[in-house]
Specification:
Elements: H1 10-21, H2 25-64, H3 70-116, H4 123-126, H5 131-165, H6 177-204, H7 208-215, H8 219-232, H9 234-252, H10 257-278, E1 294-295, E2 298-299
Antiparallel strand pairs: 1-2
């Protein structure tokens, strides 16, 4: 599939997205609100199950390693987190597949609105017709995120063990300021790297659900195409996501309610960026009218 490189204009995408939804803003607000409520309920239920399992394992390990050495205690503290991360992979896949289906529905509604000028609320649940593709995407993305998290966690654990080995604690049990300061700085670097990696991953997968919802691509095709288009527009997408993040943050400052009103604009802006990269073909209901008839080489009637 053809795409444009360097086509994403951060501010322009926000303006174009708003132009698409402004006449039917409350329709898209309602779609977004329903999707968020359902996702929150599902996430809370799955999160509670994960926490119960993790707490049980952590309690058992805490009792069994109470009289063990520092390394054993640190291992006992890390193991429940690893188990929680494994469980989170499956819960993230479920939540990701459901959210992906909602996104596909919203992007289909945006496509209909951009081409015909009419938004259909029913498109929100129409995205569940493509739940298989969304499930594939959720599984791949969750696996990538799991690998990244495990690498970062193991790296942090190695630093902790090293700090203990070089004397993070003094003889009287107090923290060694120099060692602790160095460890804290390294942790900040690790956190920064983790944020950057996830930001790049988000940019590379930004077009997955528009491609599924608007172009009817399979999960694998959408991932591959989004990676190519996202990489060719990486800088613009990262700037766009940072701007949208600031908008959501600003809305969240208003007792969190403002973020709900910004959310439809965020989705519309990402759809506008998608159109700038892949064009307005596909399922946009945008059919060119036939040319006018000609008589005696004169156009018209």
């Amino acid at each position: 599939m053809e795409f444009q490189s360097g086509a994403v204009r951060p501010v322009g995408s926000i303006e174009d997205g708003w132009a698409i939804i402004k006449d039917d803003y409350w329709t898209f607000f309602g779609m977004t609100l329903i999707a968020i409520v359902i996702l929150l309920v599902v996430a809370v239920i799955l999160g509670a199950i994960n926490n119960i399992i993790t707490l049980g394992i952590s309690t058992v390990l805490g009792v069994t390693t109470g009289n063990s050495g520092d390394v054993a205690k640190m291992s006992a503290a890390i193991l429940p987190q690893l188990i929680s991360m494994v469980i989170s992979v499956f819960t993230n896949i479920i939540v990701g597949a459901i959210s992906g289906a909602f996104f596909c529905g919203i992007y289909a509604a945006l496509s209909r609105k951009a081409s015909s000028g009419v938004a259909d609320f029913g498109d929100l649940f129409g995205g569940f017709k493509k739940i298989t593709a969304c499930l594939i995407v959720a599984a791949v993305v969750s696996l990538i995120q799991f690998v990244i998290s495990v690498v970062m966690l193991l790296g942090g654990a190695a630093l902790g063990v090293s700090a203990l080995g070089v004397g993070m604690l003094t003889k009287d049990g107090q923290l060694n300021p120099s060692v602790f300061g160095g460890l804290f700085l390294v942790i900040l670097v690790f956190a920064g790297i983790y944020i950057v990696i996830n930001l790049i991953l988000s940019a590379l997968t930004a077009f997955v659900y528009p491609l599924i919802g608007d172009r009817n691509l399979s999960g694998g095709q959408a991932l591959l195409t989004s990676f190519k288009g996202g990489f060719a527009n990486l800088g613009g997408l990262i700037l766009l996501m940072l701007l949208l993040g600031l908008m959501v943050f600003g809305g969240a400052l208003l007792c969190l309610i403002g973020a709900l009103f910004v959310a439809p604009i965020v989705t519309a802006a990402m759809f506008a960026a998608y159109q700038s990269v892949f064009g307005r073909t596909g399922n946009n209901y945008n059919y060119a009218p036939p040319p006018p008839p000609t008589f005696n080489n004169q156009p018209g009637y």
